[in-house]
Amino acid sequence: MSIDPQIMKTLLKLQWMQNLDRNGSTSNVLSPDSQDGSSLFGSMLSQLLSGATSSGFGLDSGDALLTSSGTDALMPMFKGVMPPAATYEFSQTGASETTYDEYIQTAAAKYNVDPTLIKAVIDTESSYNPNAVSSAGAKGLMQLMDGTARGLGVSNPFDPVQNINGGTRYLSYLLDKFNGNVQAALAGYNAGPGRVDRLGIQTDADVADKLHLLPQETQKYIAKVMNAQAMYIFS
């Protein structure tokens, strides 16, 4: 029996989200009335392999889990991690796979940073607009402040190559500083590493415990980047 790739993609996403929850990166992934994620994954896969009908997960006559209306069959499980579409939108315009993908891959390899995380930061910061300027004066694809850009050797923050290289270098520094804890590094990227240090945040568990002490903008920023990265991983 062949399995629709879209179905398997959804199952892998569910398994990945359960792993995030187990590692403390994301909380409340499963709805309160759901079963354990790993056993649910196994149950769904088992039903797929045995040819489950519409009385199970809507697979009668070859129907896929992801319907034209979205992840309807799985939305109760995703409510704790996926933001409302009206709140967060991901550009995914294709720019990351065309104009900027080579630059991202080069910077990712140079600084040992996951390219999907770089894409998620760019998407969140500027929606892939190399000429973006924030109200605070942050510039370019990865929204570098002038002082930070100079310290990273970026002479023109509107140059995509320089901006991606500098932003990735800074992200790499933060990941090293916080021992690979991605959410702590993202908090530092948005709120500044000094502020994160003063709050006593060093790990992703600290982020979860002290999230309310971070600016609301930073709280939303972390969630948006993490969810954007999930979109890039499974796109």
UniProtKB/TrEMBL annotation:
Keyword annotations of the record: Lyase
InterPro entries: Lysozyme-like_dom_sf, Transglyc_AS, Transglycosylase_SLT_dom_1
SUPFAM superfamilies: Lysozyme-like (SSF53955)
Root EC class: lyase
Alphabetized Gene3D superfamilies for the sequence: 1.10.530.10
Protein's UniProt keywords contain Ion transport: no
Pfam families linked: SLT
EC number(s) recorded for this UniProt protein: 4.2.2.-
GO MF term (any one): lyase activity
Transglycosylase SLT domain: residues covered: 102-200
UniProt similarity note: Belongs to the transglycosylase Slt family.
Protein name, per record: Membrane-bound lytic murein transglycosylase F
UniProt organism field: Paenibacillus plantiphilus
